């Protein structure tokens, strides 16, 4: 490994579109790596600031936490310009095709390992927000990238097509809240949190519903 493992955040802005509605959103794009290579987590809205943040580093992969348009907007361009595979869980192929009907992606599957900067990101399939939603766990740094599965304050939205509230609750309960409490949660939108901060509220979320 060359240099120190680091995590950088780029915030991009644009429109989320689904079921005929549109919403202005700010997205977190996460860059995980060192001075030589990096994995891009989500390819939201605008490729330019992401490419600028990557700099001269080699891009190992562009990993999409799910197929909603605001998380995959720039994925094909980043894949081409950075000579990197775009990874997405096959469960979200239908959502992907809404944004990129003619573009290909490589499958990201449960328990897959993505090597970068002398460590590994572990893929965790966490359906609910969408059928193919995934999280990425970086045990070495005690960090979890949750996309839109878990936020500060509860689960991601499940009121739209391709989503299901009981499924996201099961994913969070069984796959995420079992992690160490000091695991830092880096989300797809907004501020981060920790597993310890969210775990006590599971019953409240269930009572609240989606």
Descriptive key words:
alpha/beta, 14 strands, 210 residues, 35% strand, 23% helix
SSE diagram, text form:
Blueprint: E1 6-18, E2 21-33, E3 37-41, H1 47-54, E4 58-63, H2 69-72, H3 75-81, E5 86-88, H4 93-99, E6 106-107, E7 113-116, E8 119-125, E9 134-138, E10 143-147, E11 150-151, E12 154-155, H5 165-176, E13 184-187, E14 193-194, H6 195-198, H7 202-208
Parallel strand pairs: 3-4, 4-5, 5-6, 10-13
Antiparallel strand pairs: 1-2, 2-3, 7-8, 8-9, 9-10, 11-12, 13-14
What does this entry look like structurally?
The chain has helices at 47-54, 69-72, 75-81, 93-99, 165-176, 195-198, 202-208, and strands at 6-18, 21-33, 37-41, 58-63, 86-88, 106-107, 113-116, 119-125, 134-138, 143-147, 150-151, 154-155, 184-187, 193-194. The protein is globular and about 50 Å long. It starts with 5 loop residues before the first strand and ends with a helix. The protein has seven helices and 14 strands. The model has no long low-confidence stretch (mean pLDDT 97). The strands form three sheets. A six-stranded mixed beta sheet has the order 1-2-3-4-5-6. Strands 7-8-9-10-13-14 form a six-stranded mixed beta sheet. With 210 residues, the protein is of the alpha/beta class. Strand 8 (119-125) and strand 9 form a beta hairpin. It is 23% helix and 35% strand.
């Amino acid at each position: 490994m060359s240099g120190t493992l680091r995590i950088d955040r780029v915030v991009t802005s644009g429109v989320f579109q689904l079921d005929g509605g549109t919403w202005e959103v700010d997205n977190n794009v996460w860059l995980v790596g060192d001075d030589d290579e990096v994995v891009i987590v989500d390819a939201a809205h605008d490729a330019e600031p992401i490419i600028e943040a990557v700099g001269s580093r080699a891009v190992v992969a562009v990993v999409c936490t799910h197929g909603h348009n605001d998380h995959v907007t720039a994925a094909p361009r980043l894949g081409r310009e950075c000579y990197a595979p775009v990874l997405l869980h096959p469960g979200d192929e239908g959502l992907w095709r809404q944004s990129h009907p003619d573009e290909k992606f490589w499958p990201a599957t449960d328990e897959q390992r993505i090597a970068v900067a002398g460590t590994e990101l572990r893929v965790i399939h966490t359906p609910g927000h969408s059928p193919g939603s995934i999280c990425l766990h970086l045990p070495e740094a005690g960090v979890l990238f949750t996309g839109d599965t878990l936020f500060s304050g509860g689960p991601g939205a499940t009121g739209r097509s391709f989503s299901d509230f009981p499924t996201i609750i099961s994913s969070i309960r069984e796959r995420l809240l079992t992690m160490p409490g000091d695991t830092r949660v880096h989300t797809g939108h907004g501020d981060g949190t920790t597993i310890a901060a969210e775990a006590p509220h599971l019953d409240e979320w269930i009572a609240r519903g989606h």
